[in-house]
């Protein structure tokens, strides 16, 4: 069945319907990871986005129930050059097409994804539409122009949990699957703000001895403090960090009282809460091979990334130190506060999918909690 992808600037591509039949709008972005499509589909940070995979064949190792970062796909739409309809992997239980249909994700295949990505790189990420019900490019371009843009919207409220819960999964091993978190012997009590949290962050924290309570995005600083955490974690999540005033306010109140660690959206919110600002990148960083320099260790790490906004270095005051930069475009990749125990990174130390070079950051959070505990016991 025919499908069309159209962009707000008038560019369009004819392709074939994949997944659900229907029509969907979102910001059209691209991800350069060669594998890890299940983790990408289920990363809540992609909510509101139509994700194009640059790798030419997607779905070749099928879909299994384990490689997920949340309980369902959150992205608006999915674009691939070729979707593999005969997956080959001992863990596979269904095809990509069947999975996208099951979760009602309107997708398209068979378009020239290289041409699309080159266009996005030239003109910048923008709103687009995939449709298999209306295939008139002119009408679709109009609909794309009328669709809400990503900037200025609070998408976090659409993906955050409704109620607090305890993280129960540990790390995955072949043959045994996910370990169960050993909360009884946990040494650190962590409260994790769920702005759209990826499960592998929680798995990494529980594996290092944290008992993690995940709380909804609007939980107040007072409610968090009532749980007496040793540390607070600020998660990744979708959309623009600037309109999330409630989160910025709560983080501001927690700073100096408890160690804070943020990833991606959590990093952007920490920067804003400490006086900085963010801006939209031309087409973002999404993929598994972004080089980052850690000033402190004087080491380059290859990182997993997924973001369209970035912290403005010029907006940061002298109590905020830039700890990491992206070696492709020199954008801010990590910060540390000098006045309170808090740090954050723009990229994904939990990988899933991607390289594991940055795992040391979870250990840094543990060290920070240890030091804070020691100092408080002496006080
Ligand atoms: N993965 C994330 O947390 C993304 C953060 C934010 N939504 C951005 O696009 O920049």
Automatic annotation (TrEMBL):
Reaction(s) the record says it catalyses: hydrogencarbonate + L-glutamine + 2 ATP + H2O = carbamoyl phosphate + L-glutamate + 2 ADP + phosphate + 2 H(+); L-glutamine + H2O = L-glutamate + NH4(+)
Chain segments carrying region CPSase: 1-188
Keyword annotations from UniProtKB, A to Z: Amino-acid biosynthesis, Arginine biosynthesis, ATP-binding, Glutamine amidotransferase, Ligase, Nucleotide-binding, Pyrimidine biosynthesis
Positions of the Carbamoyl-phosphate synthase small subunit N-terminal domain: 1-131
SMART domains: CPSase_sm_chain (SM01097)
Protein residues bound to L-glutamine: 45, 237, 239, 265, 268, 306, 308-309
Gene3D superfamilies for the chain: 3.40.50.880, Carbamoyl-phosphate synthase small subunit, N-terminal domain
Keyword Disulfide bond: no
Enzyme class: ligase
Any one GO BP annotation for this protein: glutamine metabolic process
InterPro entries (alphabetical): Anth_synth/Amidotransfase, CarbamoylP_synth_ssu, CarbamoylP_synth_ssu_N, CarbP_synth_ssu_N_sf, Class_I_gatase-like, CPSase_GATase1, GATASE
Pathway the protein takes part in: Amino-acid biosynthesis; L-arginine biosynthesis; carbamoyl phosphate from bicarbonate: step 1/1; Pyrimidine metabolism; UMP biosynthesis via de novo pathway; (S)-dihydroorotate from bicarbonate: step 1/3
Gene Ontology molecular functions: ATP binding; carbamoyl-phosphate synthase (glutamine-hydrolyzing) activity; glutaminase activity
S-adenosyl-L-methionine as UniProt keyword: no
EC identifiers of the protein: 6.3.5.5
Active site: 264, 348, 350
Function: Small subunit of the glutamine-dependent carbamoyl phosphate synthetase (CPSase). CPSase catalyzes the formation of carbamoyl phosphate from the ammonia moiety of glutamine, carbonate, and phosphate donated by ATP, constituting the first step of 2 biosynthetic pathways, one leading to arginine and/or urea and the other to pyrimidine nucleotides. The small subunit (glutamine amidotransferase) binds and cleaves glutamine to supply the large subunit with the substrate ammonia.
Record note on quaternary structure: Composed of two chains; the small (or glutamine) chain promotes the hydrolysis of glutamine to ammonia, which is used by the large (or ammonia) chain to synthesize carbamoyl phosphate. Tetramer of heterodimers (alpha,beta)4.
Database matches in NCBIfam families: CPSaseIIsmall, PRK12838.1
Xref: HAMAP family: CPSase_S_chain
Family: Belongs to the CarA family.
Name of this protein: Carbamoyl phosphate synthase small chain
Source organism per UniProt: Desulfuromusa kysingii
Phylogenetic placement of the source organism: Bacteria, Pseudomonadati, Thermodesulfobacteriota, Desulfuromonadia, Desulfuromonadales
């Amino acid at each position: 069945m025919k499908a069309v992808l159209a962009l707000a600037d008038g560019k369009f591509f004819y392709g074939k319907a994949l997944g659900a039949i229907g029509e969907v709008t979102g910001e059209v972005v691209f991800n350069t990871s060669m594998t890890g499509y299940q983790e990408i589909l289920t990363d809540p940070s992609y909510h509101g986005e139509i994700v194009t995979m640059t790798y030419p064949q997607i779905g070749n190792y099928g879909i299994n129930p384990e490689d997920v970062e949340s309980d369902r796909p959150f992205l608006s739409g999915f674009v691939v050059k070729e979707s593999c309809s005969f997956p080959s992997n001992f863990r596979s239980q269904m095809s990509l097409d069947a999975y996208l249909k099951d979760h009602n994700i309107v997708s398209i295949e068979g378009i020239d994804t290289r041409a699309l990505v080159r266009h996005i790189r030239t003109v910048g990420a923008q709103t687009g539409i995939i449709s298999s019900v209306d295939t008139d490019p002119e009408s679709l371009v109009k609909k794309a122009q009328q669709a809400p843009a990503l900037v200025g919207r609070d998408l976090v409220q659409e993906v955050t949990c409704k109620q607090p819960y305890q993280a129960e999964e540990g790390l995955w091993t072949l043959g045994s699957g996910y370990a169960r978190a050993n909360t009884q012997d946990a040494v650190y009590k962590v409260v994790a703000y769920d702005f759209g949290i990826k499960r592998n962050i929680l798995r990494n924290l529980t594996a290092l001895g944290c008992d993690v309570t995940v709380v909804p995005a609007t939980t107040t600083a007072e409610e968090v403090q009532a749980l007496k955490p040793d540390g607070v974690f600020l998660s990744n999540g979708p959309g623009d960090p600037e309109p999330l005033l409630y989160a910025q306010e709560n983080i501001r109140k927690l700073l100096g009282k408890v160690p804070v660690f943020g990833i991606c959206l959590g990093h952007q919110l920490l920067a804003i809460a400490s006086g900085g600002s963010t801006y939209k990148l031309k087409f973002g960083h999404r993929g598994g091979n972004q080089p980052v320099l850690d000033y402190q260790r004087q080491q380059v790490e290859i990182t997993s990334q997924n973001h369209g906004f970035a912290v403005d270095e010029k907006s940061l005051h002298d109590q905020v130190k830039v700890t990491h930069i992206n070696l492709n475009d020199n954008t801010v990749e990590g910060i540390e506060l000098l006045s309170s125990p808090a740090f954050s990174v723009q990229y994904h130390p939990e990988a899933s999918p991607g390289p594991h070079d940055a795992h040391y950051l979870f250990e840094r959070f543990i060290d920070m909690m240890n030091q804070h505990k020691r100092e408080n016991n002496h006080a």
